[in-house]
Specification:
By secondary structure, the chain is an all-alpha fold. The radius of gyration is 23 Å and the shape is elongated. Helices cover 79% and strands 0% of the residues. It is built from nine helices and no strands. Among the domains are: 79 residues, Tetratricopeptide repeat domain (Serine Threonine Protein Phosphatase 5, Tetratricopeptide repeat); 57 residues.
């Protein structure tokens, strides 16, 4: 990095630290125009865009930050664990956990013994599972709806686990839970009025 680019990078970093996000984003982009393979500048741009998205409550900045993180990951050498964690957070903020799951599964196909990628995939799947269950803070959810959402996670997990590891016991457990839930719903229906569903 030559002196002029280094000075611009340092100025952009100082603006980022002082929360002058628009200036820092502009200056990091100028650094990247001069040196497109400057990974530290790309990571800093990603962080500035993410912070701008949080401040402005604008999802578009998260998407831009995610794209910069992906580019930085392609350009970086070695395993950058902090960048992977930042990407997982950005996938979550963008509402793209399904894409993250696909991408990490692809990474694991290329490197099946990579324990870090396995942990990242588990983390993404856990976040994704928690997003499925609705929160009952503002809206009233009937007990059967709440039980249904919880069972979807468990039944689906048991059945998928049984399919992936070819174990009929897990498939049976998932099917048994589903049957029990259907019996519960039928009994609940018989004891309640149809308009409470």
């Amino acid at each position: 990095m030559d002196d002029k680019i280094k000075a611009l990078y340092d100025t952009a970093l100082e603006h980022y630290r002082n929360n002058f996000l628009d200036l820092s984003i502009k200056e990091f982009k100028t650094v990247l125009t001069a040196e497109p393979k400057n990974v530290p500048a790309r990571i800093q741009l990603c962080q500035a865009l993410e912070k701008k998205g949080t401040v402005d409550q604008e999802r578009a900045f998260y998407i831009l930050a995610l794209n910069e993180a992906k580019l930085a990951l392609k350009m970086s050498t070695g395993l950058n664990k902090q960048l992977h964690q930042q990407m997982i957070n950005l996938y979550d903020k963008c509402g793209q956990l399904d894409i993250a799951i696909r991408e990490y599964k692809k990474m694991l196909q290329d490197e099946p013994d990579n324990a870090f990628y396995q942990e990242c995939l588990k983390q993404i799947m856990a976040i994704s599972a928690l997003k499925v269950i609705p929160v009952a803070s503002e809206e009233k959810i009937g007990r059967s709806k709440l039980i249904m959402w919880i069972l979807i996670v468990f039944v689906g997990g048991e059945i998928l686990l049984g399919i992936f590891i070819k174990n009929k016991v897990h498939i049976f457990i998932g099917a048994a839970i589903l049957v029990i839930y259907l019996i519960y719903r039928a009994l609940d229906y018989l004891q309640s009025k149809p308009d409470k569903w």
